[in-house]
Task: structure prediction
Amino acid sequence: MCARLTVVCLLVASLAMSTYAQTGTAEGLAIPATTSAINSAAPLSQRVVAYDMDAKYNAKAHSLDASETLTYHNLTGQPLDTFPFHLYLNAFQPISTWVREGKREATRGQDFEKWDPKSFGAEEIKSFEVVGQGDFTNQLQFVHPDDDNNDDRTVMQVHLPKPIPPDGYVQFKIKFHDQFPETLERTGWNRDFVLGGQWFPKVGVWWHGAWNCHQFHAYTEFFADFGVYDVKLTVPQYEVVGASGIEVGSVNNPDGTKTVAYHGDDIHDFAWTASPHYLIYNDTFQSSMGTVKLRIMMQPAHWGQAERHALIAKQTMERFDRWYGPYPYKTLTIVDPEPGSQAFGMEYPTFITAGSSWLMPQGLLLPEGVVEHEFGHQYWYGMVATNEFEDAWMDEGINQYTEAKVMDSIFGPSTSTINLWGITAGEENQDRLFYESVAALDPIAKNGWQYADNNSYGGITYGKTALILLTLENVIGEDTMRQAMHTYFLRYRFTHPTKEDFLKTIEEVSGKDLRWYFNQAIYGTQVLDFEVLKISSVPVEWYKEDLQEKPGVTEYMDNVWIHRKEDFVIPVDVEIKFDNGDKVREHWDGQDRWVRYAYQKKAKIESVEVDPDHKIYFDRNNFNNSRTEEANSAPARKLANYWMCMSQFFAQMLAWWLV
Amino acid sequence: MNENVNLVFASAAIARRNKRYIVWFYLLNLAFAHFGASAFSDAAHNILDHSLYADKLLHGFNLGVFTELLTRPEFGAMPSATHPAIMFAVVFFLASLVFMPGVLLGYASDHRLPRDEFFRACGRNVWRFVRLFLFFAIIAGIVAGVLFGGLNALVTAADKTSNERLPFFTQLVGTVIILLLLTIIRIWFDLAQTEVVLRDQPAVRKAIAAGFRRTRRNLGRLLGSYVVIAIVALAILVAGILLWYAIVPPASVLGAFIVGQAMMLLLLAMRFWQRATAVAFYVREMNQPVVENVRAIPTFAASMAP
Result:
């Protein structure tokens, strides 16, 4: 009896479990465990959301009508009765926080004084139903968690009378209408091109015990949960379409439109583009997880650069695969957007926009740099899904660092940005310029929208982060740093790590306590500027009236003063060269404001250099890091000659036309 | 066509015969540019002379390091470097305005013009040339303003199409056309200046009218000659830059100076060639021994004699 009862109980239990495993809840909801878009037999992320969308694009009105079915899996461990949603396209209206911040700083590529209302963007909810709980269309509220702008409509919230239990599911059925803006912030239309970015109501992320759903700010980006996307796009048949994920079907409709279906696994956003002009260049990359199809959508005038795009994509993917970890998706779509649109240089999962021009000499590495950079985001935003509102540096900055590593390895450290007609520049030069003008304004660890201004956001999150990581690499060693990045990627891919997750990983892998560095570089605004304050070589027997100085015979008191002008403390090497060929290396802990090195030698000091191996990238002024006893006027004369030639030319042209 | 070729070669002979003018103007141009670049030069020496980092600018040209240099506070604001260059360019323009009458007279002369005649011509015509410049500035300014405004509208319209090359080529072709039209105005005033100097014409408006008539009647011939010379100038500029890039080692300051100055000298010579074209045309057109007339101009001393 007992045994029979046990068997019956086990049967009932196993039936119940199998039902739960298939549907998740009694209502039969679940997040699909599909893997068709990834080179993996099992899902790679803890899937929280499943978006099923059917959108029809009106190419004439640049608008879109869509229905969205969002299934949400409550993995927060607590009941949820409130759900916030991003409505990003509402940022492109004069009253929004995005525009107010942009107007404040005259940024975002739009002269708001001349902004035509036809170019505004909007996202309107037509209906909002919660399955099993009813229609909430009239109960939606706009909220503004980051500021006091009551008019901002980029976040809406719905309160449910019946909370969703832990591990429960809820399904939202939303109908919405999008009016795309004339391209702004890498979304919208330009002529007959459209880039659909941030175009659908997207639920916030439950993070650290609260909803994380920030308003759209002028220079912050995005944050979302992983899941599955099934999207049907209906567009005119003449359009060439590309999107996140893999294409799973395309049907021509009798009304002159076509419906293209896409599916994405383990991604947290979905973007698409359409234009009648794209030419498609196909290629493949063999990643360590399988074949990746590269689909490069080129502007006709840039067709000759398709191979450049493909080559840099493959070179970048090969290095990322080898250094940090595999790219698991089956596709990567690279979009060369409409020229003159503000759609270039943007990342979405498995979908990036590049940027070029019909006149692009080989030595101008702009397309290469953009493709590399945007692909890098597939790792530091796409898979390691950091919070770009609060920790923008963990995406943009780390990506800027890996960009420098990849581009330098391909094109050489001093020529990885420009190598044209004798004019050169490297990634580090670019990062230094970003950083130098704003060095002390903000710490790296700061909410993105709270930076002093757009320049500080760019200079600190991109430039400073790259420079402090390049320097850190020289503190702990290149191999150790690469191992740390590899560990960080493998450990935190398909999750939402914090800044401390990243920093602790580096400390753990390197086996070093690096708080002294992180506290200044990440959490502080300290600035570094070493200078060679002065050098002197005085004969020991200076008091002798008949002293005749002879090289190699006369003995000198040689002194070198090194000064730490600013407040960042870091150990540094100093190299002193003497005129008899001797070299001395000193190691200074940098704790004091200055240090003096004294020698008594039969040689005078020829030159002194702080950081002779150029390990520190963020010294604010590299010109004063060295001092030579003898002046070398050739560099200044060379530049003055250039300047003089240009002045002569200008004067001649003036006289040519006016007299 | 033959006449055209003859005019170009004849004017080249005139410019070559009087190459001292080109040399003097070149030296003036060089000296003023040297003064104009002194603020930039001082700032650069101050930062670079004792720094090893400057090597990135000597053995190559690292644009990032150069930009870092320009943004250093101790370098000073950019206007402190650009303003002197602009001021001395204006001074060179004024010097050209003052001394050009002497050059035109020299070009029309069949012998080496004595220094006193050169400067006398400059002195007699300075106010006339200022007035000519003002007329030129008004006419060319209006024409350029209207044409560039129209071109801007065209480029804006072209920018709205999906053809990415269209705005660029619209801008290029439009600019070339506008430059051709401005060249016609330049020819017109070059002839007016020639008239003023060689005829000792005090009535500037009459000279402008005469210049206009001659330009209108001989437009193809004159414009052809000016354009040919302008193309040679462009070729010199391109060849000079290529030569600079190909043969001058990055660290060779002297090499860069020589190539750069050779380019500047030849460019200046091209404008003098155009000037000589205007004079050669004028002399042929008038078909009279102009120099004798010029010599007959009473000197300042003679006119003051009782």
